[in-house]
Every structure is written in C-alpha cells, then in structure tokens.
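User: My advisor, Dr. K., asked me to get a structural model of this assembly before our group meeting. I'm new to this, so sorry if the format is off. These are the inputs:
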Amino acid sequence: MAFILCGIGLILPWKLRCIYIEILGWITQFVYLSYIVILKFILQELQKAKAEQANYETQ
Amino acid sequence: MKLNETATLFSGGTDSTLTAALMAEKFDKIHLITYDRFAFSSVMNPMVNVKKLRDKYGEDKFDFHVIKVEKLTRFVFYERYLHNIRKHGFFLLTICGLCKLAMHVRTVIFCLENGIPNVCDGANQGMHLFPAQMASVIKEYGDMYTRYGITYSNPVFKYEGPQDLDFTDRLRLERVLSRDKEPATATAARTANTTGRKLYELGLMPSENVKGTELDRRMQPRCFQFILFNVFVHWFYLADHTYEEYQDATVRFYQDKIRAMVKHLDDYAAAGADSRLARMIER
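Assistant: The format is fine. Below is the predicted structure of the whole assembly, which you can bring to the meeting.
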C-alpha cells in the first residue's frame, strides 16, 4: 500500500502532487476526527451509565 | 554588511519562536522570514508570535517577511528528475527536506540582497527524521552558507524534543480528553529542557508543551505535505531499513541536491538578474 501511495506521488507533476497529498491529508484528518468523536461519545455514555448506577445505589 | 542583523526562518512554531527570542538578545534586528507557496495556507498565522516577540523585545526589533517560493520550490523538487529517480529513488518524496532546501536557497538570496551575514532556524535534534534537522545535513547547509559569507546556526538544536510528539501519541486517551490543553500526563515536559518550557519561562507561551494543540496549529501555516513524507519514511523505508541506513541515504541525497543548488547560487552571485535562479525569485 505504501509503495502504491509513494509511487503515485512520485510520478505526479507539481500541482497534482500537492493536490494528491492534500486529499491524503484530509482522509487522514477524517479518520482521526472520527476516532476522536467516537471515543468521546463512548466515554460520555460510560460516564452517564456510571452516574446512573451511583444514583440507583444511593436510592 | 549588517553585522548586527540576522535572518531567521520562521514558521511561528515553538522552535523557531524560541530561536527568534534567543536572537533578540544577541542582535539589533531580526528578519523573520515565513515562506509561502502552493499547498500552504494561513501563512499569516505566525503573526501571533511575531506580536508576542515585539511586545516583549520591542516593536523595531523584528521585521516580518512573507516570501513566495512557488517557482523555486518546484525547481528544487524537479531539477534533474529522472537522474535523481535513478540515483535516489523514493527519496524524492522527502518533501519536507526538499521544501526546506528551497527555503534555504531563497534565504541565501535574501541575505545576499540585503547584506545580512547571519542566518538561523529552529532545527532541533528531536526531529531527527526530517532531513533539514539531521546533524549531517545541517553541516552541509552550514558549508553552503559559509561559501557566501553567511554564518548559519541552530540555537535550539540541543534542546530536547517533546516526549509525546509521535502521531500515535495523539490517539492516547488522556490526549483525546484534553485536546486543546496541555496533556495532564506531560509531566516529562516540566523537567525536560524543551523549547516549550523555555518559552513558558520567558512568558511567550501559556504552558510548557503546546506542540500538537489547537494553539500550536493557529501559530503556524497549515501544510499537509508531510503526510506523504511520513508514508515514505515510516511505512515504506523504515519498514525494511534501519534508521542509520535512512540517515546515510538521506545525507547522500541532500549532498547531491545541495551541490546542484550551489552551482545555481554561484551563477546567481556572478550573473545576478541574468541567472536562472533570478527568474525564479518572486517578489
């Protein structure tokens, strides 16, 4: 996969190469931000569940 | 010759900002140079730290220049392209190193035009995968500058790199939870001799480790070009080679490239406006 990504980059002329890398960059950002959003959502739900459990036990 | 002036390659990040601050104590005038080309955006972001430096050291101390290097960068990347592919292969994808080479060539021209005999940048030993921050390549740059009567230095080279700079560090839970703030577990930064810590002590940064935070992103131009560089280095080359092999191959490539650029700079120094480089200088 790395060979293919690098190979494409190597044969592209200047502006096309820049645009190609920009696309790779945005894909990387999308994957990273998706990870952040999903992880934060899971953590929030776990914290809510923990708070509810604590409420239930005190009642 | 303006012996009391220096040019600083200035991205607005912590390393180049500390370099500028240290130079403010040695020189009367510091020319902060930020470069601009296709695929860079937000090139005025370094003004955030230019203002902080001016507030601390004086309004007249720093001149801020944004210089276009589109044509020159394209030339540096693609000159003798087939020859370089045969000889150096995928090292032509060390994009950050080639981009920096173009900046150094343009800095030589800036210094020759303005009579400035000193240049420095924020190269740091912690960024050892980047060609322009490897000691052996830095030596080649030093020789190039010396050829034109310019002293090139790296005042923050010996500072330690931050402990959690790796991309995968950003995926750690504590980092996710404190994305815009200094990570709570960055205790190593408080005892390490980093540029972030020094900037914090000087009152130029709000915390000791801003690298990778939203603040860090807002201080510098945005550039995604490092993505392909990282794919080449981490995923492709270092998968089958040692760091020492990477370093040796990088030094060979940059010796070759710098030699080629020196020929053009010699031509520029001799022929001025009639030289090939002169046609690539954008005002």
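One thing worth pointing out at the meeting: The radius of gyration of chain A is 22 Å.

User: Perfect, thanks a lot.
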